């Protein structure tokens, strides 16, 4: 008997205004996968992620979380099933970072929310920020705090929209290492990324979107092949062997 996918999407299409921005996307993701969702600006990555969260209503298609259809789940069940890191890092209130992170755990266990939040801040090496107001943090510091908020939840599915945007190089590697570790521990992580070399290095699986469609889906080297790099991104690419595994180098065509 095959395992239940953590996330299943069937025939999802979505319009924004009059524009079709996601077109007939079908995907299935299993526990333990770190999936990089890549594609040029405007490819539809955020729209797809938001449809999976139930924040955008599709024109057609169905979504299941752990075998339960999304439309049958109320907000609490959705929050238990998935943790969402939005691309836009604004926080409405200037709460201390620890309290913002604790909101991510609060749905599950009010008593344990603060220790869990502290552990999540430590996970992204941001415990020194715990008492600082989030409005007074730098963009990169706030990005770490908001990621910690997602890590404080034990939802089976983490949807992270550009989790490394605005982070310094060490921070980018740290965050991807942590997300990979979460996948290794059984969560399913979907992260939209613009850095194809990082996607190639960390992801178990790469999904390439272009103009609302899935153009490739497979291992990093399989999905980011010469034709996809050229046709979707306008890039030339070479895969080189290194001690850390295959490395992708890129150049404009
Ligand atoms: N609020 C909106 N109203 C109308 N159209 C929108 C809106 N937000 C995005 N779009 C359009 O939807 C399409 C897909 O955008 P989306 O944000 O999903 O792409 P993306 O792949 O996440 O892009 P990026 O890498 O730039 O974040 C684009 O053509 C965009 O112009």
Polypeptide structure, described:
With about 250 residues, the protein is an alpha/beta fold. It has a single domain, classed as Rossmann fold (3-Layer(aba) Sandwich). Helix content is about 35%, strand content about 30%. The chain has helices spanning about 45-55, 75-80, 95-105, 115-125, 140-150, 170-185, 195-200, 220-225, 225-235; strands at about 5-15, 20-30, 35-40, 60-65, 70, 80-85, 155-160, 190, 205-210, 215-220, 235-240, 245-250. It has a six-stranded mixed sheet with strand order 6-7-8-3-9-10, sandwiched between helices. It has a four-stranded antiparallel sheet with strand order 2-1-4-5, with helices on one face. Helix 6 links the parallel strand 7 (about 155-160) and strand 8 (about 190). Helix 3 (about 95-105) packs across helix 4 (about 115-125), helix 3 runs parallel beside helix 5 (about 140-150) and helix 4 (about 115-125) crosses helix 5 (about 140-150). The longest helix is centred in the last third of the chain and has 16 residues, at about 170-185. The mean pLDDT is about 95. Adenosine-5'-triphosphate (ATP) binds next to strand 2 and helix 1. Pfam families: ABC_tran (PF00005). It comes from Brevundimonas halotolerans. Keywords: ATP-binding, Nucleotide-binding.
